[in-house]
């Protein structure tokens, strides 16, 4: 069988190679190259010097229980909902939503705060501790948490993580609080567990003497 083949074309060189091999005649860009150039007109490139590096994602950086987080959503989002809905730290509770009950209490830089009243945009670079963050890295409960168990302070439990955070803040300020100091905490308990809370704080104070967390 005989195959007919097209007559051999003289070798050609691309224009980029012309300087290197002047003996070979230049050729036009092939059809595909011409098509691509028509469909994708050349856009002037930004000179490298004009490129301003941007952070990959802008957001609000916070430290929560010694872990770093970046909030990239609504800056007005209350901390309460960031903790509960985004991080699933549900120890912090929603109740009054007007700063009066303390069920949502957390520590911000060691100070007792109401998470329902704090917007994420006001917390950039702040250190937040929730009731979950009181536990040691080896799983040991904070003395206040342990005292709550030992004194059986919890009734329905809804207010208790806020009560514990308030007790931690109080003991940081007053390692040996009086009953009046404890009663001045101001967190509400609808179950009336105040006498149990008072006993638990006094027990925790004794346990913590000389070994603050
Ligand atoms: S829910 Fe925040 S103080 Fe009551
Ligand atoms: S234990 Fe029920 S609200 Fe405090």
The average pLDDT is: 86
Per the CATH scheme, the topology name of the domain at 60-208 is Ubiquitin-like (UB roll)
Order of helices and strands: HEEHEEEHHHH
Q: Nearest-angstrom radius of gyration?
A: 34 Å
Structural class: alpha+beta
**Euclidean distance between termini CA atoms:** 94 Å
User: For the record, what CATH class of the domain at 60-208 applies?
Assistant: Alpha Beta
Number of distinct beta strands: 5
Number of helices, counting only DSSP H or I runs of 4 residues or more: 6
Helix content: 25-40%
Shape: rod-shaped
Ligand set: FE2/S2 (inorganic) cluster
CATH homologous superfamily assignment of the domain at 60-208: Beta-grasp domain
Which strand order spans the largest sheet, edge to edge or round the barrel? 2-1-5-3-4
Which assembly state applies to the chains in this document?
single chain
CATH architecture of the domain at 60-208: Roll
Please describe what this structure looks like.
This protein is α+β, with helices and mostly antiparallel strands and 213 residues long. It contains six helices and five strands. 28% of the residues are buried. The structure holds FE2/S2 (inorganic) cluster (2 copies). The site of one FE2/S2 (inorganic) cluster has 12 residues, from loops.
